[in-house]
Amino acid sequence: MTQVTATGDHRRVKSAAFLFACGCAGAAPHWLDPARSLLPAISLAVMLGGYGLRTVMRARKSDPVDPVQSLDVDALPSLDVVVAARDEETVVTRLVERLSALRYPKGRLSTWVIDDGSLDRTPQILDALAERHPQLNVIHRKRDAGGGKSGALNTALTQLKGEWLLVLDADAQLQDDLLERLVPYALDGGWSAVQLRKAVVDADRNWLTRSQAMEMALDAVIQKGRLGAGGVAELRGNGQLIRRSVLEASGGFNEDTVTDDLDLSFRLLTHGALVGILWDPPVQEEAVPSLTALWRQRQRWAEGGLQRFFDYWPALMGEQLTLRQRWDLACFFLLQYGLPVISFADLSTSLLSRSMPIYWPLSFVAFSVSGLAYWRGCRGAKEGPPVPSPGPINLLIAITYLVHWFVVIPWVTLKMTVLPKRLVWAKTSHAGEQQPVQV
């Protein structure tokens, strides 16, 4: 299949159409007969609530096979670990040391770190580390080389020799036995790519990082559940293992998007390549410690998430995907992106018309299912850093925290509709070992 591309103008038109449709859906029921005004909300609540409940309950945190038992050192493929780093002087030394401690057959593992035009001491630190660690390959890229993280990864892709590549963020922390368990899991499951569960290392920093730690557990439960129900799982940027031949056949990393992981998930899917999810061991990373940093990060995530649906929607609804996969994508799109915009239009109309909001049944169901996903993801033993317990207070805070998506997504949709397209890769800053931040 040829690569799917979209210009900024086409995305603006699609954003406008999406915004208009959601606006009409949110406002129209207010002018219906009061006896029928709740019918759209109740119908969607039943349909999407059933999808969400089935997804959460189908999630299995235990992996179906034990990779350790199937380990055959002689059969393990060659592997490249790839990291794009820009201004990462606070974490890059720790990263290289952790990567050097990974267990894997000698001669089959290479490490690549791309200095993506750093203005701090990252280039000098990497060059010094390369002298001490022979398996470390350092690539220096000009800051204005273009393409963001995708461009940096594509630069390395032309030089890689391994059969598989593991893409990490610069703040990634890994268990020493991760590769010995991850690679056999991918081979045994017949996956073209595998995403590790993400775990937050600094959950005890403040209420915001604690909420993000719980959100990562929620996301892993939903990913597992979607896959278990015959739907689609997605890559998450940090901790994604990909078969290089499949990646190259899919066109590499898309430099015309702000979220390379989400875009690549759909690109792989349209090429018949499936993504698996490994619960344990996780990839460990830092949470963003402030509301300002969260706002920047979530705008980028929301924009990239909408972009990929706008760019690939015709292919995703084609016959090459199964009916369950298409149903999963449609329901996920409505819950993740449609509901926040519809709810905003509903609330705005209720304020203007001095009437009650109409879509509260759908919102109530969505937050209830999220609470159940939190509970399932946070309870029980798991490897990696501890996850906050799903007690009543933590659950209430975490569910309330999700409201930020009901602000971010309508705002980003409006911005994508009105403003000309500008590709701005807003980097998430990594602090390394720092003192707790109050929010």
Describe the structure.
Helix content is 50%, strand content 11%. It has 439 residues and is α/β, with parallel strands linked by helices. It is globular. The protein starts with 7 loop residues before the first helix and ends in a 21-residue tail after the last helix.
SSE map:
Blueprint: H1 8-27, H2 39-58, E1 79-85, H3 92-100, E2 109-116, H4 122-132, E3 136-141, H5 148-157, E4 164-168, H6 178-189, E5 193-200, H7 207-228, E6 240-243, H8 244-249, H9 260-270, E7 275-285, H10 291-316, H11 323-353, H12 360-378, H13 392-401, H14 405-418
Parallel strand pairs: 1-2, 1-4, 2-3, 5-7
Antiparallel strand pairs: 4-6, 5-6
Helix pairs in contact: 1-11, 1-14, 2-7, 2-12, 7-12, 7-13, 9-10, 10-11, 10-14, 11-14, 12-13
Order of strands across the biggest sheet?
3-2-1-4-6-5-7
What's the total count of β strands? 7
CATH architecture of the largest domain: Alpha-Beta Complex
Cα-atom Rg, whole angstroms?
Answer: 22 Å
Mean pLDDT comes to 90
CATH H-level superfamily title of the largest domain:
Spore Coat Polysaccharide Biosynthesis Protein SpsA, Chain A
CATH class wording of the largest domain: Alpha Beta
Number of H/I helices: 14
Instruction: State the end-to-end distance.
Output: 47 Å
Instruction: Using the alpha-carbon principal axes, give the shape.
Output: globular
Tell me the number of structural domains.
Answer: 2
The ordered string of helix (H) and strand (E) elements is HHEHEHEHEHEHEHHEHHHHH
Largest sheet: 7 strands, mixed
Helix content: 40-55%
Low-confidence stretches: 434-439
Structural class: alpha/beta
Q: What fold name stands as the CATH topology of the largest domain?
A: Spore Coat Polysaccharide Biosynthesis Protein SpsA, Chain A
